[in-house]
Amino acid sequence: MKTEVRVSYAASLRKKILSDRTKLFMLGLPIILLVLIFQYIPLAGWVLAFFDYKPGIPLAKTPFVGLKFFELITTSGNDLLNALKNTLAFYFLNLLTSPLPVIFAILLSEVKHTSFQRVVQTIITLPHFVSWVIVFSLAFSVFSNDGLLNELLMNLHLIKEPTNLLGNGDAVWIFQTMLGIWKSLGWGTIIYLAAIIGIDQELYDAAHVDGAGRFRRIWHITVPGVAPTFIVLMILGMSNLLSVGMEQYLVFYNGLVADKITVLDLYLYRTGILNADYSYSTALGMSKTFISIILLFAANGIAKRIRGYGIV
After folding, report:
1. How far is residue 106 CA from its own chain's centroid?
2. What is the CATH number for 190?
3. HEC secondary structure over 6-20
4. Does any domain span residue 33?
5. 56: left (phi > 0), else alpha (psi -120 to 50), else beta?
6. Within a domain: 217
7. Which helix (H) or strand (E) segment is 74 a member of?
8. Burial of residue 34, with CB atoms counted within 10 A of its CB: 0-12 exposed, 13-18 middle, 19 or more buried
9. Which of 63, 174, 202, 230 sits at a 20 to 30 Å CA gap from 157?
């Protein structure tokens, strides 16, 4: 009798586990399908990199050129090198400012007034949900020749002539980085606040009993607690060394700052879509993807050697 009860209980438990797994799988299935449709199926278009493709001509009638366009990348002119320089400049500027969300999250977590904390968190997170087109409209209203900032400074007699930051090639790297910080600071802060909340509160209590002040508790408990999250995000960011985005630089693009704002993704867009050079842009995009994968695993390996763990 006991054996039958155990078998029956094991069978019902197995059935429940399978049922729960099926429900979880069904919940995740739409996301899996979206990723498959929009991320993996388009990879079939990589075949264009090996053909001298022209729109309107069937691929079967298009001449096969092998690695011609990959070789062309190595002999490209100054436009590609300039785009690469701008991409690396924006990436390293973003890397230098990456601790800002950590610092802001730590400062915000130390605020004991819950209502004030929520208000500040909401205000700094809102820009994340504003499109870059709207950001450009706001920036144009403030920083253009006839913008609010120039009018204010001229009325205060601080400047004699208006300064157009949107057309200043010397300031574009810093200006675009500052806009990126304004837009992403709140979202990054949420991630690190979640990491701080996950730290065992007994550690703070024990440190307080031992006489540790607020700064020492932050330095010896909070900072090590958010370090794994920071390392994971830094490793993932390393894979974006050559992919700093396009939308921001596309909407702020103009002839005055073209040489300083054209990044690789924008260069790919202009080459592939505007100039209809699909084969060359596909080959360049493939090369960028492979380099990003190599950088991701390299950064993960370095993190494992230094910290003892990575993301893979």
Report:
1. 21
2. 1.10.3720.10
3. HHHHHHHHHHHHHHH
4. no
5. left
6. yes
7. helix 68-74
8. exposed
9. 174
- 247 neighbors 132 (Cβ within 8 angstroms): yes
The answer to whether the CB of 245 falls within 8 A of the CB of 265 is yes
Longest dimension (CA), the chain: 97
If pLDDT is split at 50, 70 and 90, which confidence band does 275 have? confident
Instruction: Give residue-wise pLDDT tens across range 102-123.
Output: 999 998 888 888 888 888 888 8
Type of residue at 195: A
Tell me which amino acid residue 293 is: I
- Binning the chain into helix, strand and coil, the percentages to the nearest 5 are 75, 0, 25
Establish if 121 belongs to a structural domain: yes
pLDDT tens per residue, range 155-195: 888 888 888 888 888 889 999 999 999 999 989 999 999 88
Residue from 269, 79, 249 nearest 173 by CA = 249
How many structural domains is the chain composed of?
Answer: 1
Question: Domain span at residue 187?
Answer: 77-135+163-307
Is there a domain that residue 295 lies in?
Answer: yes
- In whole angstroms, give the CA distance from residue 65 to residue 103: 52
